[in-house]
Write a structure and sequence with these properties.
By secondary structure, the chain is α+β, with helices and mostly antiparallel strands. It has 2 helices and 2 strands, in the order H-E-E-H.
């Protein structure tokens, strides 16, 4: 992994940016559900509301490790 603190001029790869964005979005959805709020998502091209329990169950499966530089 590249140490951006010591060398901030090194560009971040698009894969690293996408992985960070996906991680942040997933954590935000989970926090929202943990607080007891429903979460909406697209399912089969339509907006669907999920209960906090459904959301937590859907995200309880381990996520694959992303490629990091």
């Amino acid at each position: 992994m590249i140490d951006r603190i010591k060398n901030p001029s090194v560009p971040i790869s698009s894969q690293a940016l996408e992985a960070a964005a996906q991680f942040a979005a997933r954590e935000a959805v989970l926090e929202h559900a943990r607080l007891g709020f429903p979460v909406c998502s697209l399912e089969n091209g339509q907006v669907r509301w999920f209960t906090p329990e459904e959301t937590l169950a859907r995200h309880s499966q381990p996520q694959p490790k992303s490629h990091q530089e």
